[in-house]
């Protein structure tokens, strides 16, 4: 009986060997895949086992971490004034993941970033828990609050930039949401999330970066820049030769009317800007041509995504036929722009033609406050020459002055340039329009702030010349807040 | 493989090796006590309060078993007892460690399991001592061959009639006041006794009275009968109790013992054909078994309700353990949820907290225990002892493979427990009895042959020395 017994013994040995091979396979070969598998809850447990780093505005954290009594996830994200800051930070939820800054800088905030390796090693040796680093933003708290309060219950967005550096000072989108409401993973969090997801007003859409609107008359600044740069006109005081109403090219006598009667025929750009003459800018756009209009728009940043470092949708100036290209010159065709894009247009003009790359993260700092990444302002390009930029500034400042747009609390010795816009939508203007206002403030040391405001609302005053009633005051308040901080 | 001195009868007698056993037992007690301290330090930063009691308890059990072996089985194999003690001790630590997780130690799940497990281990050790004390010679069991068969069938059939279904398998019997009992664990020992007795008598008939066909020896119809009966029974277990593990265990062990008894390879071919066809049939008709097969083929897939399956959770446990593990008390095998982490999936905790290194060590402990059992079978001098030892060691090996292979998704998962390690009273009691039987056979095998009686004839022819 011993021979078969030995065979049985060998067989049993093979069974044990098979087990050894199998555990080596899953615990060594497959280990990485299993450790990081999306269904492996350990990933999330580890992630929430330490307080998350904070996002800082004006030296103060606008986020926090709260210790919970949950068995799995120890720390939960909290926000100070979440509704105000949600468009900046995004959310960081145990159940629904992260987005925007919370997503882009996740590895710093959790402390998993490779650049924190040294810190983490020291912490491990000294027996401390791993900590997350902080994200220092460029935002201006006062301006942000002013913009948020200014928009109030209306839908819209505000973006303010420092034209000299490209630093984003304000980024508001309304209606907003409180990311704290679904930071955990309980039933309440799920309900809050579902309610926000199904809300028709799309509170979680960051309108400042991700919504493109028809830019309306604010786009006339770009058209004017194209006319100047292409040499079609030498300066803003040169008379043009466009009838009122303007007959759209290649059409069967389709007229394009002006808002203010009797002032737009053959008007120069200064006047045309002041009265927002459709005829002049449609004519200019037509004469510049689709190709050169696209080129100018692209020099201002159209047709590409921007990463601030959160991704912003590309604003669009498409190839089009002549009548459409003429209409695009007044911002009423298939060209579309994000609020960020229009703020970039204003900031390039205010910065004497040089467009700075927009950004909102100044520094990433380790838990011990060592700076591990410092953002240096970068030039995105020079869409218009310094001389032409000054021409445009004059025209935009004329708009504010000649139309008596309320400057709010801004000192009289500070120059303010702006351009209103009312983007019509719906067939035959059936839906309420978008009210735009882009502007900048100019001191002796250059321009510290450029703003774009868009309000989607029912009560928009359809007469756009006076500053739309809604958008301009918000822009003024934001600029006043930035200027007040600038003078300190 | 050449047989060494263990298998030969040496008139001078083998060393009893009891002192080796004692030394090994010290390790087998000290290692779990350290593991216990490790859990406490990792969870709370202090030595756990019950450490002294636990250490003394385990030490006492080990000491008593050692004395019993020294007294009643002095020539028994020296490694089996320390291996069983170590596995039992580690099992207690692991269960106690999982008791520290509130989410899987709720009242609805039966609360802490470690105290009960310690009590059942004590009962197991008592049975171990009882077997050594009362069963002076394993050949006595041969008398109860057919009684064993009846007992085994009753035990196996019991859950069909009075059992309750847990987790889709009907393998438990509720005894009021005591708890639930898994008769299958005891049946595996009883049926090994029956097979050993039956095959010892029938082996010649089965081996020799066969026809040759295509190079295989085909058994006669009437000899085939018992196999078909066993096959049918194991299939019935599978169908009515939906217990893949137990049926695999019984059929496997019958084939192994038949092969050893008859030395005919054809029996293995028959066995494999029958078990494969049975398994395929049941897997394709029974939803519970079919689901297990699906889980095995795609272990990481979500369940029908989009939840993460236990199989996937166990895989994540193993994977997250990596090479060296998270350390005792620092893993998340509780995510498997329910009572499973303490019973069926206890190896997942080993894999996650002790890592690949620890899990391989545990598998090697089992392998060593099985090897000692096989060696006992080789060393045994009587056919009944040989068959019984190979049966017991084989049943142990198949169980270890089926459970460990199941939780690591090497084969489909079956509802059985890791001997000694996993929570479960029936299992720990039955396995202590199994070890006692192996030690009894081993003691008989290694005991020195009685000194030959002085022969008058030889005295007559002695050379008279000056």
From TrEMBL, chain A:
Residues 421-430 have a biased composition (Polar residues). One of its GO terms (biological process) is cell division. It holds the Pfam family PBP_dimer_2. GO terms for cellular component: plasma membrane. Residues 156-479 form the Penicillin-binding protein transpeptidase domain. Keywords: Cell cycle, Cell division. It comes from the Bacteria. Residues 52-135 form the Penicillin binding protein A dimerisation domain. Transmembrane segments: none annotated. Gene3D superfamilies: DD-peptidase/beta-lactamase superfamily, Penicillin-binding protein 2a (Domain 2). Residues 410-430 are annotated as: Disordered. GO terms for molecular function: penicillin binding; peptidoglycan L,D-transpeptidase activity. This is Cell division protein FtsI/penicillin-binding protein 2. The lineage of its organism: Bacteria, Bacillati, Actinomycetota, Actinomycetes, Kitasatosporales.
Automatic annotation (TrEMBL), chain B:
Keywords: Cell shape, Membrane, Transmembrane, Transmembrane helix. Its main location: membrane. It holds the Pfam family FTSW_RODA_SPOVE. InterPro entries: FtsW/RodA. One of its GO terms (biological process) is regulation of cell shape. The chain crosses the membrane at residues 21-39, 51-69, 81-98, 118-135, 144-162, 182-201, 222-240, 246-262, 269-289, 345-369, 390-414, 420-439. One of its GO terms (cellular component) is plasma membrane. GO terms for molecular function: lipid-linked peptidoglycan transporter activity. Coiled coil: none annotated. The keyword Transmembrane helix applies. It is found in: Membrane. It comes from the Bacteria. It is a multi-pass membrane protein. This is Cell elongation-specific peptidoglycan biosynthesis regulator RodA. It comes from Streptomyces zhaozhouensis. The lineage of its organism: Bacteria, Bacillati, Actinomycetota, Actinomycetes, Kitasatosporales.
